[in-house]
Amino acid sequence: MNDYNLRSLNEKELEAAVEDLGEKKFRAKQLFSWVHEKNAVDFDEMSNLSLKFREKLAAEYNLGESRISARQISQDGTEKYLLELGDGEAVECVLMRYRGDFSKKRNTLCISSQVGCAMGCSFCATAQGGLVRNLTCGEIVGQVYEVNHLLQQEGAEKVDNIVFMGMGEPMLNWDNVLKAIKLLNAKDGQNIGIRRMSLSTCGIADKIKELAECDLDITLAISLHAATDEKRSQIMPVNKRYPLGVLMEACRYYQKKTKKRITFEYALIKGVNDNPGEVMEIKRLLNDLDAHVNLIPVNPVANTKNIFRPSQKSVKDFAKMLKKAGVNCSIREEKGADIDGACGQLRGKLHKNQLSG
Ligand code: SAH
């Protein structure tokens, strides 16, 4: 597939594109700023580029075809956006504004890396339709650019924190995700610090080792959700390919290389992974790591079997037991529950409406 989206191009590639169009190389810096810093959506905005150059650019390239086609605003200030892509597919991203006394003030955008997902986790809405395709690099960064464009128009504060925890498995679209991380980090682009980015994976062990070699200060989150192979394979088919022994070995390797704490996400599912016996399994598994466990009461999703949220009390009890066992943990603050909190739900609804309409 040819990609004519300028948002997919880094500084070097923009230089080559500019020279190809017969313009001076230094113009690439100006173009980079319009594309990656100022989130331009129209070539006419590029006031310091000649009309002729803009016309040549517009004839060969575009500024991304992703556009926000739905927006839901939660009572707690969380916003969910549906982005329609050039081919009619759609992904979603969620803006979470943290203003609490206990958390630093930040605007976190949770972004997607694929349309759909091939991983088949039993509790996840995105898994239900399988994988449609990878997002291009321009489509990945485009989520941030489109949301920021809108926020700027409204005079609101921009996104300053990114989590790759939306739809898809980022480590299975690795080249595009890695390029997107670097573009979002670029000083003369969005300038979002790498330390303000997190990436969540269901556990692609080979790629975790690759990431360890990248010298990137990004926070790694592992979707654990169960601490024995038998249970994890039941709810996460990826565990058959990368069982816990292999996954934990990759995590130890990552930590040895990067010295960074690893987050482990654990969605509590009633009667599946929330009984006290699991606490000791988690402790055993994470014993020799610097780890933090994020407990998430599972979000109920339509068309899933046996996926129910435990009571608030049993979530708190589970956290207490983990802490008593010496495992660092917290219960994730729930955001946007009234706007289809669980991943994949908004897109699911849009598709259903289209089918019935
Ligand atoms: N594929 C990556 C990132 C996308 S999912 C991964 O697996 O980590 C982001 C997080 O949301 C993952 O931890 C995932 O397991 C979790 N998640 C998915 N569906 C959920 C649900 N219904 N309730 C709670 N967490 C869910």
Can you summarize this structure?
This protein has 357 residues and is of the alpha/beta class. The protein has twelve helices and twelve strands. The model is unreliable at 350-357 (pLDDT under 50).
Can you offer a commentary on this structure?
The protein has 357 residues and is an alpha/beta fold. It has 3 domains: 6-60, DNA polymerase, domain 1, CATH 1.10.150; 65-192, TIM Barrel (Alpha-Beta Barrel), CATH 3.20.20.70; 202-332, TIM Barrel. Helix content is 36%, strand content 18%. The protein has helices spanning 11-20, 27-37, 51-60, 137-153, 174-185, 205-213, 229-235, 238-241, 244-258, 277-286, 312-324, 345-356; strands spanning 67-73, 79-84, 90-98, 106-110, 114-116, 131-134, 161-164, 197-201, 219-223, 262-268, 291-297, 329-331. A 10-stranded mixed beta sheet has the order 1-2-3-4-7-8-9-10-11-12, with helices on one face. A two-stranded antiparallel sheet has the order 5-6. Strand 11, helix 11 and strand 12 form a beta-alpha-beta unit. Helix 1 (11-20) packs across helix 2, helix 4 (137-153) packs parallel to helix 5 (174-185) and helix 6 packs parallel to helix 9 (244-258). The radius of gyration is 21 Å and the shape is elongated. The protein binds S-adenosyl-L-homocysteine (SAH). S-adenosyl-L-homocysteine binds next to strand 8 and strand 10.
